[in-house]
Design goal:
alpha+beta; Bifunctional nuclease domain; four-stranded antiparallel β-sheet; 7 helices; 30% strand
Length: 179
């Protein structure tokens, strides 16, 4: 999978990361929290924070311990919540660590690790765009325009506004259950 883009759900104003299969026109939309969206988007845009953010701190710690992030995998969809694992390796031993999908993706972006999704997750939740209706260049252009215009601060501002108004849930599982 590759990260196709980060956007907002127009109805609920909840951030979505859109993963695309390596082959074909299948897209996996994953609703995520504002903080995770900002973390993913910030790294995709090449921006850096003056001090390490949580995902940066994790990658720095793993590096100091000589641990490599091998891959992240969206493993299942259970009760409207995507689950993931982060596979790390140290001294030739691989260990899978349970993770929220949004955190796993934010880690993968920082570690330059590949992102996978279980076949049954893709079968159950992916959206396939096919035929003459799909204009790959147009979709890419739309996301590029969005990425050019949006910043990590937009997600942070949306989270603050939502918290003040009581409309945005910061817990990813709660947000995904609503859908």
């Amino acid at each position: 999978m590759s990260i196709y883009g980060v956007s907002f759900d127009l109805v609920g104003k909840q951030p979505i990361v859109l993963l695309k299969t390596a082959e074909g026109n299948r897209y996996l939309p994953i609703w995520i929290g504002h903080s995770e969206a900002a973390a993913i988007l910030m790294k995709l845009q090449g921006a850096t924070a003056p001090r390490p953010l949580t995902h940066d701190l994790l990658i720095n710690m793993l590096g100091e311990l000589d641990v490599e992030v091998v891959r992240v995998t969206v493993t299942e969809l259970r009760e409207n919540t995507f689950h993931a694992s982060i596979t790390i390796a140290q001294n030739g031993n691989e260990v899978e660590i349970d993770s929220r999908s949004s955190d796993a993706i934010a880690v993968a972006v920082r570690a330059h690790a590949p992102i996978f999704a279980a076949d049954d997750v893709i079968e159950e939740s992916a959206i396939e765009m096919e035929g003459d209706e799909v204009n790959e260049e147009e979709i890419v252009d739309q996301f590029k325009r969005f990425l050019d215009e949006v910043s990590a601060e937009d997600f942070i501002e949306a989270e603050v506004e939502g918290d003040v108004e009581g409309e945005v849930e910061s817990d990813v599982e709660d947000a995904e259950e609503e859908d």
